[in-house]
Protein: Sec-independent protein translocase protein TatA
Organism: Planococcus rifietoensis
Amino acid sequence: MGGLASIGVPGLIIILVIVLIIFGPKKLPEIGGAVGKTFSEFKRSTKGLMDDDDEEDKDKKDKKETVETNKTESL
């Protein structure tokens, strides 16, 4: 159950130092921008998927209500 959440602040600092050593201070802003764009695109995509699911659920509910209304009217 570890995952990314169990890294903690000291682990993040160590990772940041390693990234700084590997890529250097000049590349760090460029890498940060790329990571930020990637996360925002991912967030936008998942929001779109969630909105699609909500629309499908609403359509199913509307169809179910229509069927139930038709059954009641035919009685």
